[in-house]
Amino acid sequence: MPEKEEEIGTVVSNLEGPSPNQVDFVVLNGKVHRGQFVEIPYSEGTLIGMVTNVLKTNKYFERADAVKEFEAQGTKLFEQFPVHDWEYIMAVTTPLGVFTNENKIKRTTFPPSPGSKVFNAQPESLVRFLGFDEEKGLELGNMEFHPVKVKLNLSRLLQKHFAILAQSGSGKSHFISCLLEELLTRKKENGRVAIVAFDVHGEYTNFAEPVMDAKYTDYSKHTRLIRARDLRIGVPKVSAGMFYSLLPNASPAQKRELSKVLQRLQQKMKDGQGPYDLNDIKGELLAEMGSKDAKESVIAALIGWLHELDDLQLFGKADNPSLLDLVQPGVLTVVDLSDIIHQHKKQVIVAYLSNRLFYERRAKRIPPVTIVLEEAHNFIPQQIAKEGSITKGIMRTIAREGRKFGVSLCLISQRPIQLDTTTLSQCNTQLLLRITNPYDIKHIGESAEGLSAESLGMLTSLRVGEGLLIGEAVNAPTFFKIRQRNSQPSQHEGTLEKASIDFEENERKNKKETEDLL
Question: Which of 37, 81, 270, 500 lies 20 to 30 Å from 53 when distance is taken between CA atoms?
Fold first, then answer.
């Protein structure tokens, strides 16, 4: 990159500007790229802008009809005229803010003058302008056109929630792995959070596995793995409100009846009769059948619903494992949902654990916690009412109130248009990776503040591992390359070719073992 003394261009005047919204400059030295930051001397200090488009033009080729007529005669323009001397590059730039002479940052309210020199933005200027935390920040990548590490402040990134939006195969899981690595290696004196990741596809279970290859970092000592098939929810820990969410169409009479039974069982437990499960609730309801005031239709409906819950094989007399024992500062708890096909069962697990995390943190019985939710659009859908999605209510609550209590959300989705807009609007920082679906792009543009149409249009051209960061964690939209991960690859990663080769190799081994046995 050129040093500041080497100017890269000069501001020009045209119909679009210069204005507080757009500054164009002709490139004099080197190359200029979309997403690059530049500096321009300004009446109040130094203007910082981002190049949003680069145009190459030539006066000899401006009129298509003239070019066609001339070239049709069999003579090339470049053979007759000095066309290369008239080729030049124009860079369209969006002003982002101003470093004032008092070392303050303010918005651009007045354009720079035509003829002003344009310089490549200096690393120290970008670190200050974008608000990177060089001392304690989470190192997640590098800026593409500047020698600057992207190191984000923990609170600015996570406290007001974080969303990662991208199509499948664009690097979401890779980025999350890098984020988890940074959180797990964070020093105690810099502040640590607990992490609970709801892993739909088993992509983060590798963090819990000992490393056999020395080139990878071992995070197993800081990771706890919960297999969903082994998980049990302690019925005494399920509040009446939680039961109501599991029974979205319950009538007021059913809710009153269930509430009475739960209160009785809670009192019996306090009196030393021990914890209870779903069978005990059903037993209490059956006992009610004989009373003269009982409404048999109400009780029968509740018992039928409890049978459905029992079929999920999720509920017991106590939590297993204990949530409070697992949630610790600097520790990752991976809830592996990959072996569950039933979406309703997944919803129950995510809703219950998220509800417990929120209310336990409100009571300050657990440390500040970040909840990572893969495939968020399946748990917090836009088109389904809260009554039809068990997790929607608690996630909306955490999105609205979590920052006050130290509970943050990290939502990951490949279909932003299907993700609940109320929850998404509370994610003050968003990482956008490659997205090509026009409906998703339009949806992001409508929900993301400070994202220009030019930056939005660049999403389709991003390569795997490149992203655009916007929102609370940075002071201006920032394109960057995600760093290499230190953790071992997930067992689910790999190409189609490798999977087919592995399958045939296993088939060959199995066939040989069978033949040897016979």
Answer: 81
Query: What is the pLDDT averaged over residues 90-110?
Result: 87
CA distance 174 to 27: 36
Beta-strand ranges (E) seen in 36-86 are 37-42, 45-58
CA distances in angstroms from 309 to 196, 313, 345, 386, listed in the order given = 24, 8, 9, 19
Residues 308-364: pLDDT tens digits? Answer: 888 989 999 999 988 778 899 999 999 999 989 888 899 999 999 999 999 999 999
Torsion angle in degrees (nearest 10) through CA of 102, 105, 110, 112 = 80
d(CA 197, CA 337): 10
CA gap 77, 82 in Å, rounded: 8
Is 474 buried (19+), middle (13-18) or exposed (0-12) by CB count in 10 A?
buried
DSSP 86-122: GEEEEEEEEEEEEEETTS-EE---SPPPTT-EEEEPP
DSSP letter at 342? -
CA torsion 22-26-28-29 (nearest 10°) is 40
Confidence category of residue 213, pLDDT binned at 50, 70, 90 = confident
Strands 478-482 and 466-471: antiparallel
For residue 321, say if its preceding peptide bond is cis, omega within 30 degrees of 0. Answer: yes
Please, are residues 118 and 496 in contact by the beta-carbon 8 Å criterion? Answer: no
Which residues share a beta bridge with 412? 164
The Cα–Cα gap between 7 and 333 comes to 51
pLDDT for residue 404 = 94
Handedness of CA 488, 493, 499, 503 (dihedral sign): positive
pLDDT band of residue 492 (cuts 50, 70, 90) is low
| Torsion sign (Cα): 276, 279, 285, 286 | negative
